[in-house]
Amino acid sequence: MEKVNQISMGLRIGETIKDYFSLTKFKVVTVMLFTVLVGYLLATKGSFDALHMMATLVGIAGCAMSGAVLNHLVDRYRDTQMQRTKRRAVATGKVSVESAFLFSMSLLLIGFSLLFWQVNALTAVLSVLSMFGYGVIYSLWLKPASPQNITIGGLAGAMPPLLGYTAVTNMVAPEALLWVLIIFTWTPPHFWALAIYKKEDYAKAEVPMLPVTHGVEFTAFQAWLYCLLLCLVSVLPVLIGSQGLIYLVVATYINAKFTWYTYRMWCQPSNQNARQSFRYSIFYIMWLFGALLLDHYVRLIAF
Q1: Residue 259, SS3?
Q2: Tell me, what's the pLDDT at 182?
Q3: In this predicted structure, what is the pLDDT of residue 81?
Q4: Least crowded by CB within 10 Å, which of 11, 86, 124, 135?
Q5: Is the torsion defined by CA of 141, 142, 143, 147 positive or negative?
């Protein structure tokens, strides 16, 4: 009987850990950390301190996950109305509001302290501001207030590559701001594709996402326009001389493909086309930042 109780307790602990971990949106954070890593490596001139880089990634991850937990807290009532989110741990009561808030603040404290003491104050402050922008400004104010919520709030999610850069240089540079601009421009077509095939969920939860307030066709058209703008913005690193031919070739190809996906989503509105556009948008940002890194090291070796 004692052994059964121990097994049962172990299962409950495992479920609790799983519930808390789910609050961190770790899959999203992983993609974000990839752009942080790219920004970090682009700021180096070949060699780097592995422990410093790890402190940077863990510290920024802590701040980002803190914002994700706050998002779960703010959205807990809306989440119960949406098929996609109704099983979230705070929405279902598996994790209490008080516990989730303490978890969020603990992650923030760990992340900020690590960045401040092991990296630099600039990166620590910018990481906290980014967390606040997503967890509070976007989640609490913008999301329920405006159909342009993701456009305005996208700045917080665009910060990661800049954070990687400042971790090395302790300064903000034009090329790093271009990476922020790229993600800022990429965010609307990325998120609006998701919002299109989750339109009914957002409508039920009374969240004024663009497909709910202006319709699917208008939203898809806006996503396509942003893709056209992204085509221009993403080649700016080449125009200022920080990137070369390899990056230009990759960027041109994936821009054409992403633009095609959003154009088809506009001309043939359907959940399937929106879902395909959303999935490709994730590959797009990974390929683009991978191309930034590849081009950087090829040029470094060549010259």
Answers
A1: helix
A2: 97
A3: 85
A4: 11
A5: positive
| Cβ atoms of 221 and 154 closer than 8 Å | no
- Indicate left, alpha or beta for 47 from its phi (over 0: left) and psi (-120 to 50: alpha): beta
> For the chain, how are helix, strand and coil distributed in percent, rounded to 5?
80, 0, 20
Separation CA 75–CA 68 (nearest Å):
11
Q: Tokens at residue 67, please?
A: 């914002």
Q: Are 174 and 240 in contact (CB under 8 A)?
A: yes
Confidence of residue 147 (pLDDT cuts 50, 70, 90): confident
Terminal Cα-to-Cα distance of the chain (whole angstroms): 70
CB 222 within 8 A of CB 188: yes
* Spatial contact of 34 and 288, defined as CB atoms under 8 Å apart: no
By CB neighbour count within 10 A (0-12 exposed, 13-18 middle, 19+ buried), where does 152 fall? middle
Q: pLDDT tens for residues 108-141?
A: 999 999 999 999 999 999 999 999 988 888 887 8
The C-alpha torsion from 170 through 175 and 55 to 52, rounded to 10°, is -70
Q: Classify burial at 5, counting beta carbons within 10 Å of its beta carbon; exposed 0-12, middle 13-18, buried 19 or more.
A: exposed
Q: Which amino acid is at 23?
A: L
Q: Which of 148, 112, 147, 118 is nearest to 130 (CA)?
A: 112
Of residues 151 and 42, the one with the higher pLDDT is: 42
Distance in angstroms (rounded) separating the CA atoms of residues 183 and 203: 27
Decide if 62 contacts 131 (C-beta within 8 A): no
pTM flag (> 0.90): yes
Which ranges of the chain does DSSP label H, i.e. alpha helix?
2-23, 26-43, 50-74, 76-79, 89-92, 97-118, 121-132, 149-157, 160-169, 174-197, 199-204, 210-214, 216-233, 236-239, 245-267, 271-302
Separation of CA 63 from chain center? 13
The amino acid at residue 221 is F
